[in-house]
Amino acid sequence: MLNNISLQGKRERRVIFCFLFFPVVLLCLFGIWPIVNLIYLSFTSWNGISESKEWVGFANYFKILQDPTYLTIFKTNLYYLVSGLLQMVVAMYFAIILSFKTWGQSFFRASFILPLLISGVAISMMFRLFFTGEGAFDQLLTFLGLEKFIGMWLGDPERVNYTLAGISLWRNIGRSFLLYLGAIQSIDPAYYKVAEMEGATFWHKVRYIILPNITTVLTLDFILLTIGVVSVFEMPFILMNGSNGTATVLVKTMKLAFDNKKFGMAASLSVLLTLVIALLTIIQRYVVIKRERRQL
Amino acid sequence: MKQLVFKSLKYISLLTWLCIICLPIVTLFLGSFMTHEEFSKASSLTFPTSFFYLENYRIAWQEGQMLRGFLLTFVLLICGVFGSVLVGSMVAYILARFNFKFKKVLVLLYFIVSMVPMTVSQVSTFKIVSNLGLYNTIWAPILLYVGADVMMIYIYLQGLEKIPTELDKVAILEGASYFQVYRQIILPLLRPATGTVIMLKVISIYNDFYLPYLYMPSQNLNTIATTLYRFVGPNQTRWEVICACIIISMVPMILLYLVLQKKIYEGLMSGSVKG
């Protein structure tokens, strides 16, 4: 019997080793080590090439936190927060509509998900064409009698961030839509039946059945959204190369590192970015746990 | 009467959003069938003279070397997805079913990595990848897709919660090895989770621009995303060809979606994310 148990233990250790060895190597090499290294680099003035890395303490951090140009970069990300919140509202509206009987239901659903399937490069190039002078968008405005709004959608620094945030909304709405639709579909139809017998209106159903049932997904989507907002990168990078005041924090980080060879500064900026994300995640977890406790 | 107003509002809003989604794509589609002169003269939203003018598609396909891009993307997809499924299910199986010395540490490490978005840490990953001699090889993005993105482990852990432990205990008593339990009981029962992982991975790898851009600058190692990006540079003046190029790059994912539409919704509705 004793022999049996030790044999069991041996087999257990063997399977644990076999299953974890390769994944843990990958995790350390490409997950943990870069993060540790990032923190180390953030305290140096490394240029990405030289062998020696000069230790500068918190100098990079002070520079970033004191220089107003860096703070304005953080503001650029706020455009995407606003468009993200708008995205949640619009997605919710359409998810509710399309979970009830509608003519052309699956066609509309598919078309709302469509942008999610197109790559960032394709979307960027597409909108570069769409927003050119006298391009399709300006034509549309003329058609709608809104000529006075025509302008340089991508060339005007006052306007370009709104344009980019709009493109981000266009692209990401599918994700929110899909999440909400899934949650609404998993609500037991019996609830609606009972509610109908009680004479509930459409609004009552939304307010008392749908909304309480999708709060978890809403929170999840909000977490994804905030992380997405902090790490906006592709659109401003591909479309504008970060020029014209469109550089988000991550675009700036990449420019610092790979164009200006200031790896130390870039690393500090990355660490700050990560801290923001970690803080947001922790706050949100705290809120979710608190609410779940209250529900119990 | 009120019903009618509501109904028309509903359809008007749906159609409006449909237009917003489709208009940019339609512009592209129309432009891709125009000759160069037509395109420069035409104000965007006009029909081309003929939808059988396929010259742009030929140029895009040949000069852009899109076939090569598709093949490389396909290789990355297969390796990335297969690796993620394997690593995710194995790690989740061990974490959910066994107790061992460093388990808490490992869970913490995975949590930390999941907090830092992959793009953010590239500043320091870059040096590690090039020190390993992986720069300008397809292994750089593949290993990063599998090793640095850990979301699949959480999806599998969620799936494992639903599989009763009694099932594997009985199998062990019957004389099965742990490998057999994993292979013959756990993996088949995790199929819904695998579906979710595959779907998310395919979308993210196919559309990924940044890792191939950063790690595979070689002309021979263009994925479909970087093919497009690099094709646009020297061809700025030939927008009609670029249009065709973009349209071609969209086709595989849209076809895949249409084929798998039913399955995707079933997976979604079966409550992978319950409200």
From TrEMBL, chain A:
GO terms for cellular component: plasma membrane. The lineage of its organism: Bacteria, Bacillati, Bacillota, Bacilli, Lactobacillales. Its main location: membrane. This is Sugar ABC transporter permease. GO terms for biological process: transmembrane transport. The chain crosses the membrane at residues 15-36, 78-100, 112-131, 177-194, 206-233, 263-288. It is found in: Cell membrane. It holds the Pfam family BPD_transp_1. InterPro entries: ABC_transporter_permease, MetI-like, MetI-like_sf. It comes from the Bacteria. It is a multi-pass membrane protein.
UniProtKB/TrEMBL annotation, chain B:
It comes from Vagococcus intermedius. The chain crosses the membrane at residues 12-34, 70-95, 107-126, 138-157, 185-206, 239-260. The lineage of its organism: Bacteria, Bacillati, Bacillota, Bacilli, Lactobacillales. It is a multi-pass membrane protein. This is Carbohydrate ABC transporter permease. InterPro entries: MetI-like (IPR000515), MetI-like_sf (IPR035906). Signal peptide: none annotated. GO terms for biological process: transmembrane transport. Residues 70-260 form the ABC transmembrane type-1 domain. The keyword tRNA processing does not apply.
